[in-house]
Design brief:
Elements lengths: L4 E8 L2 E2 L5 E2 L3 H17 L2 E2 L2 E2 L3 H8 L3 E7 L2 H13 L4 E6 L10 E11 H8 L3 E2 L1
Parallel strand pairs: 1-6
Antiparallel strand pairs: 1-8, 2-3, 4-5, 6-9, 7-8
Length: 132
């Protein structure tokens, strides 16, 4: 393949603080949510304990396994990127934390995974985002 494959993880950085403002979250929480996002494409293909992978995902896993982390500030931004990815026909998984350890027991969208897919398909959706 002449073009590179990658997965993009988009991380939400700001969450309501309960006082009308916004705050970040613990680094460990961010890392756990990113880990959930990176494996979402594999979990989606788990059929009774058997993971069936299309050739492009196998190629990505066996190749350079490029994963790029980008950031957005708010949930609305995260949802917009997810919608654009889905409209472009890209695999997209929004990760929603249950809120048991943070976020006051409120399910909260924390990040999303796009791909893996070709750079040329993902870049138009994510090129405006900053690196994490």
């Amino acid at each position: 393949m002449s073009e590179f494959l990658k997965q993009v993880i988009v991380v939400r950085k700001l969450f309501p603080d309960g006082r009308g403002g916004f705050r970040g979250t613990r680094r460990g929480k961010e890392l756990a949510q990113i880990a959930h996002a990176t494996k979402a494409c594999l979990k989606a293909r788990n059929h009774n304990g058997v993971i069936e992978l299309p050739s492009h995902i196998t190629e990505w896993l066996n190749g350079q396994t490029r994963t790029i982390a980008l950031q957005v500030d708010h949930e609305e931004d995260l949802v917009k990127v997810a919608q654009a990815a889905q409209e472009a026909g890209l695999e997209c998984h929004v990760i929603e934390d249950l809120g048991l350890t943070e976020f006051g027991n409120t399910p909260t969208k924390t990040c999303l995974a796009i791909g893996p897919d070709l750079d040329s398909k993902i870049d138009p959706i994510t090129k405006h985002l900053s690196l994490y």
